[in-house]
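Budget justification note: compute hours in this period were largely spent on complex prediction jobs such as the one shown. Inputs:
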Amino acid sequence: MISVENLHKSFGRLDVLKGVTTHVDPQEVVVVIGPSGSGKSTFLRCLNGLETVTSGRIVIDGVELTDPKVDITKLRQHVGMVFQRFNLFHHLSVLDNITIGPRKVLKRSREESEQLAYELLDKVGLRDKAHSFPDELSGGQQQRVAIARALAMKPSVMLFDEPTSALDPEMVGEVLQVMKDLAREGMTMVVVTHEMGFAREVGDRVLFMDGGVIVEEGKPQELFANPKEERTQAFLSKIL
Amino acid sequence: MSHIWEQWPQIWAGFLSTVEFSVIAILLGTVIGLIAALMKLARFAPARWLATVYVELFRGTPLLVQLFFIALGLPAVLPLNKWFGPQTYPLVAGAVGLALNEGAYITEIIRAGILGVDRGQWEAAASIGMSRYQTMRYIILPQAFKRMIPPLVNQFAQTVKDTSLLAPIAITELVYSAQEVISVYFNAFSMWLIVALMYFVVIFLITRLAAYLERRLQIDKR
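Corresponding output:
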């Protein structure tokens, strides 16, 4: 589904990613953990071209994203993204936030798009908020709408960039629940998060990143119980 | 005071001319400003350079000089009076000169409005597969527009005032008409008072309309 080979990314003279190689299988849930500044968010943002890659290869669904001839706009339609700060469109209602992608990008009719939007709102438990504006919603509600907005494009993979980090503690659960449901339905997911409970419960594989590389990876139970690398041990002892 | 009523048609015609030039300069200037703002934000470098040169030239020189240059300077080297007709060209020059000048300021207003929209909005639009054009059209401009209203209205009010600089290139707008009346009736005090009031009413209406728009957008679209 996704394969990443020797990915490097520099901002000016700062090397953020120093050779990341990994793959994500269809229906797999990969959780990326690591200290801040480890490059995990940058890694995720490279996967849908929000950051241009300095060198290396990324192939998603058989399309090489790092090929300059590839239409990245087209590719992004298959790669959903959920942001730390939700980034809902402030001038559009909840319903329009969800339908604008299908309508303007996929050229679906308004009726078809709204029907899909209501289905997705049911899924995230926010049908009654269809006509609210983002600023009228709580953080947890906004993030659930953001997930629905991404799903409306029927992506083959969903990327989550610290989706619960900007939320008040009591709202983390509702967002994680939506993500768990999604994982159970077989969505391929790459999740950058600090929620170790989520990683343990839902993750098929955990990548521990530090200093721009993947230090260690493995099944959550193994990695959390018996981290092999010293850096992994140090990180886990701090947060668990 | 009776002579003011005798000369009222002339003042009224001057006033209408001021309003016409204001409307043309505002509409045309906004279109020019939008295009130049998008050029300044374009990835194609020559487009950015061209827009920057335009803005700097028109902001860096006095409007009166620009109007003299277009109305009187250019016809000295180009047969503009012949192409447009000697009656029409000064009017065209006045409208175009005003619009270009306003456009330069509006460019910066629109550019600042666009840049003021949070980067996250661009990224969210990109993440659902929108092109740069779609992002601009459906996501960024509608949000930028709201924050542009106050500075744009300021600029529109300025435009109305700037039309008074058309008098020196012999366009019979409000100031020019007033000067003509005064030269016959020597009623400088009452005439300039009336002229000032007429400008004030137009500009006041514009700022009221803007306040109304701002309120409405706040209620409909938070």
